[in-house]
Amino acid sequence: EKGGWPSFMAKEIDEDPEAVANTLRGRIVEGRVALPDLDALGDDFFNDIHRIIIVACGTAAYSAQVGAYAMEKWARVPVQVELAHEFRYRDPVLDSRTLIVSMSQSGETMDTLMAVRYAMSRGAKTLSICNTQGATIPRESDAVVYTHAGPEVAVASTKAFLAQITALYLLGIYTATVRGTMTDERREELLTEFQTIPEKVRTVLGVRERIHELANWMADTRSVLYLGRNVGYPIALEGALKLKEIAYIHAEGFAAGELKHGPIALIEPGQPVFVIVPSPRHDDTLHPKIVSNIQEIRARGARVLAICEVGDAAVLPYADEVIAVPPTEPFFEPLLAVVPLQIFAIELATAKGLDVDQPRNLAKSVTVE
Ligand code: F6R
User: Coiled coil located at which positions (predicted)?
Assistant: First the structure.
């Protein structure tokens, strides 16, 4: 039930911290990732695979993309993400050393189910990451890792997205451990930081008031763009999807590096652009690049809405709005950065008087191909 919340979506965004905490619960044991659900795949499985393909649709494909960057980096195995409906009908090369991971909140999405069935028929192993106990996709897969976001009722996915990234990161750290590609020290550092994320997500939820004002002020906006790099790129795509879905506003996410290859032509005075800025503390490559992207669009009149680490002085002079998030590991930044974008979408839809739980033309579970 909705309890005191105006909508299920509002309630589910407020449950973002628990979605992460509950998906982690019981899975970090003595400085290691415990995923007994994977025993079904056999002892040497993760040493033998030579490729992982994650199949998913919509928001689940974006969480998959975030997780893929981390898994490939940590476990040194090629990981790609493919929209399930594209994968199914292109005659992909598959074999028993390919792991197909499906990502689905409902576990009933027909496009994803058909991709899983197809992969099995071609000899690949399948692992389901799912939020719904006993749904069709986990039942038919070789193994399952459940996300524990709790039931998601609003059509637009929010807390499940954070739980999906959490589960893939656990899988990534687990796989890296089995494959010997991550030091014990690094693993412990990541797992220690991981456990602080629910509290940090809760801190980020505190931006609601500010975003409420921003959204009221932007209620007539016709188009919003989102830019990110690396794990910030799928966050840009997810932010744009949320806005399209529930606020019916044209929105597009771009990899910031693509700007000069075309999309920068869209920038005209007043165009709002969210930019997901990675922490300046950890890297000397992505951060300056994003800052120069911000300068480029600002010079053409964009209204820059920056989501960045608290105290990021390089961004301040160029941003019209700064939404600050607590410092964390670069790979955990998406779990913080997505939250203001979820809030922005719901606040803007609410400012337009729309039903955020039941957006037009959409169903919670898409059970036809
Ligand atoms: C977006 C949204 C959809 C779903 C997609 C996959 O807010 O809800 O894009 O993410 O239809 O659904 P599941 O995860 O149930 O397979």
Answer: none
C-alpha closest to that of 98 among 40, 55, 139, 36: 55
- Report the C-alpha gap between 189 and 176 in whole angstroms: 14
Q: Provide the pLDDT for residue 85.
A: 98
Q: Which residue has the tokens 């038919």?
A: 140
366 lines ligand 1 (CB under 6 A): yes
Determine if the pTM surpasses 0.95. yes
Residues classed as catalytic: 364
The DSSP symbol for 82 reads: E
Cβ of 157 below 6 Å from ligand 1: yes
Q: How far apart are CA 213 and CA 192, in angstroms?
A: 35
The predicted pLDDT at position 363 comes to 85
> What is the per-residue pLDDT for 2?
86
Q: How far apart are CA 328 and CA 82, in angstroms?
A: 28
Handedness of CA 230, 231, 235, 237 (dihedral sign): positive
* Ligand 1 contacts CB of residue 164 (under 6 A): no
What's the CA gap between 343 and 10, in Å, rounded?
8
Block means of pLDDT (10 residues each) for the chain, 369 residues, are 92 98 97 94 92 98 98 98 97 95 98 98 97 98 98 96 98 97 97 98 97 93 97 98 97 96 94 96 87 96 97 95 97 98 97 93 87
ipTM for the complex?
Answer: 0.98
For residue 3, count other CB atoms closer than 10 A to its CB: 7
| Residue 323, H or E segment | strand 321-325
Distance 227 CA to ligand 1 centre (A): 21
Collapsing DSSP to helix, strand or coil, 89 comes out as: coil
- Side by side, which strands form the sheet with 223-228? 250-255, 223-228, 272-276, 303-309, 321-325
- What are the residue ranges of helices labelled H in the chain? 8-14, 16-24, 45-48, 58-75, 84-88, 110-121, 136-140, 159-179, 184-194, 197-205, 208-217, 232-247, 286-299, 333-351
